[in-house]
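Re: duplicated header lines in exported structure tokens

Our pipeline writes sequence and tokens for each protein into one text file. With two proteins the header for the second block appears twice in some exports. Here is an export where it did not happen, for reference. First protein block:
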Amino acid sequence: MMVCAILALCVWGVLLFARGGFWRVDGELLEGKGSAPGAERRAILAIVPARNEADVLPTTLPALLTQTTSGPFRVLLVDDHSSDGTGALARRLAAECGAADRLTVIEAAPLRKGWTGKLGAMQSGLDHARATGESAERILFTDADIAYGPGALARLEAEADQRGTVLASLMVKLRAESAAERWLIPAFVYFFRMLYPFRWVADPGRRTAAAAGGAMLVDRKALDAMGGLDAIRGSLIDDVAMGTLMKKAGPVWLGLTNAVHSVRAYPAFKDIQAMVVRSAYTELRHSPLRLLIAILGLSLVFLVPPVAALVGDGPARLAGIIAWAAMALSFVPIARFYGVGAWRGLALPGVAALYGVFTVQSAVLHAMGRGGAWKGRVQAATGETHEA
């Protein structure tokens, strides 16, 4: 117990002081206020892959269509074989908000072998843009459930101008209203930032790369130079794959924002479970060894401190208390960002254990050939996609 507790304390020392300040949110919030001096007026084409999104479009699509940017801005919604009238609704919403001329709706091409569903829809958008002579220099890949606040896209554009990025991405603010969301969503973002410290993502001297799929502003020429979406066509975690690809081409940036929200609701714990189970084992590259290491690491970092603090004695108990306190304090910034009680950091071991269970479930579903399930599609590790 004493050895494990002291080791856990040492790990927390490294995490707090040598992990890119992953727990801090200051300096990473979207701050661009306008175009950089001398910045060119660049056209932006937003490509929105949408599969059965009629429930969220009334909130999100008008907000996107009415964004202002430094140059021309258009929206291309790719209806990915929806059964709920997504495409027709999108056209009606555009007309109602006076932006019908800004919106084009197309049907996604049949999904090709080796492509995941979302990336296939995104490629359909790029193919259409190329076929119609669309000349936008930047592509905004954004999800149908993302609601942009007034001026948010202009600020993201300015951030990209000021930093000279080939990819500027936002970890949009996820919904945290239900009990399940308030318990699990802030922790989800916390764990993501632990895996991919945003400061390291932006550091050209580090290999760490990532993006957040809800809002990715990509330099079109740089993407084409890296082989386009075909280079990541089978990636289930498409945003991290995009960040990794684009960092080879130039500077990338990943930030937080209060100005762009996901309206996707996760009313029950099982809904968040399904979201995590879909891709957790993919993050581990479908490796049983990596799964074992991940579970052991999670146990050491998050479970040993409270166990040592509660049942240990002497040095083991002291180390457990300090490590648990460090863990709880590191959660405070993200808890405040999401407007939940900072005291929830004390419960982080339980939340981490639950995410560990989700990861094991992800591995089990993968072994059963049911991995990567999303909206009626199952994406296996081989890249074969089929209807569930």
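Second protein block, exported in the same file:
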Amino acid sequence: MKPAKLLIIEDDDLQYEIYEDTLAKYALTRVHNGTEALAAIRKETPNLLILDHVLADGELGLDFLPEFKELLPFVPIVVVSGALEVHQRFEALQGPRRAHYCLPKPVDIHELRRTVETALKECGETEVVRQFEALERSRRVDALELFSRSTDRLSRQNRIREMLGKSKERPNISALAREFRVARRTIIRDLQELIRRGQLKPEVYPEWDKPEGEE
């Protein structure tokens, strides 16, 4: 397999040497500011982007986050900076156009290496696929739950129809609710649906205008 391509946006030569040593197994490309990064991205899509905040020519890395996310919606971004206030770190990690990680300078090379490995493995396209899979599972669970509720309701209504068909007395709503372990209003809705479908005579439950009618 070809090594992952990392775009490093860093104007400090000593800091970039740290990246060269720590991330030597990856294919590194370096630019000095956000403008150069945008040009590089349009030529070749990286697998991960490492972004400093204070850059060459007075540019600020976080100002470019929206454009980076527009061009690289599925590429993880790691901000590495010693010039960010706490609230700026929170802002960088929040919202739809966010970075995935924010590390302080001087950077811990072990943490940097772990972060890059995790980001390449868990973020980006892998993260999107996982979210879609979770959404599909959620939809399936919801569908099964709705199907189960529908089946339970039809089974209960059929049983109620059988019970009332054998009795000449008006139904005892509370007794039915206890037997089927549902609320009184659920039994009332069942009766109304059975009458609406013509499976029970209207006189079985004439209190149409009293959802909580007397037994």
